Amino acid sequence: MQRIKNPLRGQETKVHQQLKKLYLDSIIQGEQEVPIEIDNRKFRIDVFDTLNNRAFEIQRHNFGKGFYDKIELLTRKKSIMKVIIVHPIVVRQKITRMKNGNIIGTSYINKTKKADFYSLFEKLVSFRTPFIPEKLGFDVLLIREHVKKEFIGRWKKSNRPRYKMIQRELINIENSIKIRKKADLLTFLPENLPKVFTNLNISDQLEIQGNERRKSRIAGWMTYSLCNLGLLSQVGKKGRAHLFKIPK
After folding, report:
1. Domain containing residue 144
2. pLDDT, tens digit, for every residue of 36-76?
3. Are 166 and 188 members of one domain?
4. pTM for the whole thing?
5. What does the pLDDT look like over 3-32, one tens digit per residue?
6. Do 38 and 111 belong to one domain?
7. What pLDDT is stored for residue 131 in this prediction?
């Protein structure tokens, strides 16, 4: 089966551009695409708040080494800069299918059973920078987007139509939360956990959309991420289950 190359890979989508403008418009004095050099490494900051020395970095997908290395350099101890990672999560989509520039169909997808604020932890499992409130924060956005796809032919075996994505556009931000303190992240944990707890203790009490499998995966992502961020400690095992506690 021939793979279709995503033309948006490595390029800035319209959603990214729109969010940059929204953040730039929300601050008194700032700039977009600000170049910065640290340890002979060159970066660009999506939006920089020049009055408050805050950098806003919009990151939808990859929270891996290249990204967290950049954040770690920007938030190092001697830096006076604070970085806010803006993470948009798609909860609803409008999909427009096109052929030769003409609309041939429209559909809508509701992702709220698989996407919510807890989806942040799916990305944070790749993030390795400790959470220091004076240096780092998160804005988590639940968004609705418009995806445009262009018809490029049909599959040989099934004769089903093939499409490639040509653009993503922001429709609106449905909800958002700001994470500025350690307590803001720890509030994702259920309230009535024992002092020492397992992933199963978490998943059993999670009141989120989705099936038991999703709750189990979210619990695992949460404990792994919170340990990496320095907000949880792994204190042993009980059978095959890891034990965790919130350090004092």
Report:
1. 1-180
2. 888 888 989 999 999 999 999 999 999 999 999 999 999 98
3. no
4. 0.91
5. 444 444 557 899 999 999 999 999 999 999
6. yes
7. 95
